[in-house]
């Protein structure tokens, strides 16, 4: 299916969807670990979600952890599953022959006879896509896989543990079945898509999901507001979250430019949650309460989520979960910082009647207060200094 470029003002906002786009034939399911309903999403605990598996690849980073395992790969997903996380987040696009594949970048870069070239993932067939990088047959060498960094440099995609590119169906089949999938519906920010293209892409993804998901928890998310609204209308099984930079970047589509606009999209379109860049939350903390009061869930992403103290602050603010790169470090830190309340330890005093009841209740309350103090993290001077500097730096654009 070819892309069709149209003017922004001509793009429909999908108040109605064609009859043949309906997926209502599928029964609702309740997933393990969270309440996944049509009207609301409420996590049973603070969620930690692995970014592109066990973490994205930052190929120019001096931190080896950011280059340990190929992102968006089966190996990365299963590596993340070894830790007490709830979901892995990954990016799904659809190839020219309608196969959903997992890949973050809009284009694949490679080299042929010394010349670097790029091809859109959506313009490749499945076999062409899978021919890049390591191959299933170790005797076969795939096409070289390069990547463009944020500053425009083109580098070899070198990681310590490499893995094959994979399809969405392979992820369902080969990844630990109890691990939830946060499926980002990936679209190019620089293209305006028409309704028929979005519908075809989303139906191809939904077909794979409903065929393979079984009891696996699923969340859909997208930066593309019309795609998020449409997938919400195409199925009534899994929650849909709207991804936003939270005002850190500006786009032609005003719906993408603030947390307030994101909340408006959710309330008008029946979406269950927002996934915001974490700086947008710290710059506009009052919005968190407004989002929660609107019964819309809130998750965050961004490099600050690799700082345990910043994650704990979000927990205190009412954020329901975070997408992180340093899965092991953050899960361990949160286990220490966010400890479940212990059962009351008050013992019988031997007194009876109202006096005994009041005395027992007083002891229970006192012990609960002590346990609450114990659950609060004890920050070092270095960590306190970081926290004191964090908010002013974020507020300063």
TrEMBL record:
Annotated GO biological process: glycerol metabolic process; glycerophospholipid catabolic process
Tell me which InterPro entries the record gives: GDPD (IPR051578), GP_PDE_dom (IPR030395), PLC-like_Pdiesterase_TIM-brl (IPR017946)
Keyword Transferase tagged: no
UniProt keywords, alphabetically: Glycerol metabolism, Hydrolase
| The organism of origin for this protein | Cucurbita maxima (Pumpkin)
Where is the region Disordered? 339-379
Family per record: Belongs to the glycerophosphoryl diester phosphodiesterase family.
Protein's recorded name: glycerophosphodiester phosphodiesterase
GP-PDE domain boundaries: 46-334
User: Which Pfam families does UniProt cross-reference here?
Assistant: GDPD (PF03009)
Transmembrane residue ranges: none
- This entry's Enzyme Commission designation comes to 3.1.4.46
Q: Which GO terms describe its molecular function?
A: glycerophosphodiester phosphodiesterase activity
Reactions listed under catalytic activity: a sn-glycero-3-phosphodiester + H2O = an alcohol + sn-glycerol 3-phosphate + H(+)
Q: Which domain of life is it from?
A: Eukaryota
SUPFAM superfamilies per UniProt: PLC-like phosphodiesterases
